[in-house]
Amino acid sequence: MSSDLHKPLGQDKPTGRRRRVRPSLISLFGFAAAAVVVGLSLYAMRGESALQQNEVAALPAEAATKEKLLADKDIAPASVARTDPGSGANVERVLTDDGSVVTKYSPRQRDGSGPVLVETPRIGQDPRLAGTPNEDLLEDSPYGPLPVRGQDGLRPMDQYARPWSGTRGTRIAIVVGGLGLSQTGTQRAIEKLPPEITLAFASSGNSLQRWMQTSRRQGHEILIQVPMEPFGFSASDSGATTLLTRLPPEENIARLHEAMGKITGFTGIINYQGARLLSDPDALEPLLRDISSRGLLFLDDGSSAQSVSGTISKAIDLPHGFADMTLDVQLDKNAIVQKLDDLERLALRKGSAVGFASAFDESVDAIEQWVEEASSRGIEIVGVSAVVDDPQKN
User: Fold this and answer.
1) Residue 225, Cα to own-chain centre: how many angstroms?
2) Nearest CA to 279 among 232, 230, 327?
3) Nearest CA to 64 among 74, 75, 53?
4) Fewer CB atoms < 10 Å away: N or C end of the chain?
5) At what angle do helices 309-316 and 281-293 cross, to 10 degrees?
6) Distance, CA of 156 to chain centre
7) pLDDT digit string (tens) for 326-352?
8) H/E run at residue 381
């Protein structure tokens, strides 16, 4: 047998001459090259969505995260209609003579045909985008961007709510108002108050959008505080933004919109004073209907025993709550801590309670100290949206 079989491929006898590579090897290399070309062609022919995924992955981490978060709402196919969970029920509410509301639910067919995407509740906003308002929940107006419900039914109240555990333990919401009026006081309150505290910004304050972004990034839920007419309010006291009983509904709603347009990212409205307006159903109802239609909540600060805000809210499906206690009537840290203890005892009886305070240094210091102690006792401090009476969740 020839010794050539034991020599390296392509090498001839010791003369140093080279032989031609066999034709079968040429075919093998040609096949491999063709496979590479076909693979590259298939890569180039991939769907647009696959290429977009690669583009997002190639972006810097922060930009890629934002691209993904903003795209999350578009995951559902455009051909599938979106609807809310209650769209398959008839809801009848009757306001009785004693002011209570009787609600009756019965099944019904959903509108249209074919499959629908039932939107599950979405609470809170990704912390990485908390300072950025959801553009789908805003509409342009002469007063600035105003909150509206999204086309898929998402409410600003849900989008900007502070998430909570959802357990049945004792819950307390604490609202601190008057922010935005004093720059140093506002900064101190935002820096010292725990993120569980709800912050209420005065619509007449300054730099509200900047303070909103700082507050939201630190985890606070926020409200807008709107001035309303108290008893004993004279025409000479009238400000350009106060909601008044003597004004036509259109003018009051315009003033409400002006207040809303000062800031974004809030879950609802809280009154500043307003005992007279809150006791006048003819003046109050159009305002509460507008707030309800925009997917917001209304928190009554509880200062007026004659307020009819709760009765009207039940009739129009407006998420509504009352502050159970004003915490800083006596501006002393120890006295405020005692009030907070009273609020805790009330919450233990009721299951939840709401306290209201203003952004005084004494109030901020007392709340900061008390929240840390209460948390160790198993009390959950939540955003105010977690304790209001919400017809959509009942």
Assistant:
1) 17
2) 230
3) 53
4) N
5) 40
6) 6
7) 999 999 999 999 999 999 999 999 999
8) strand 380-381
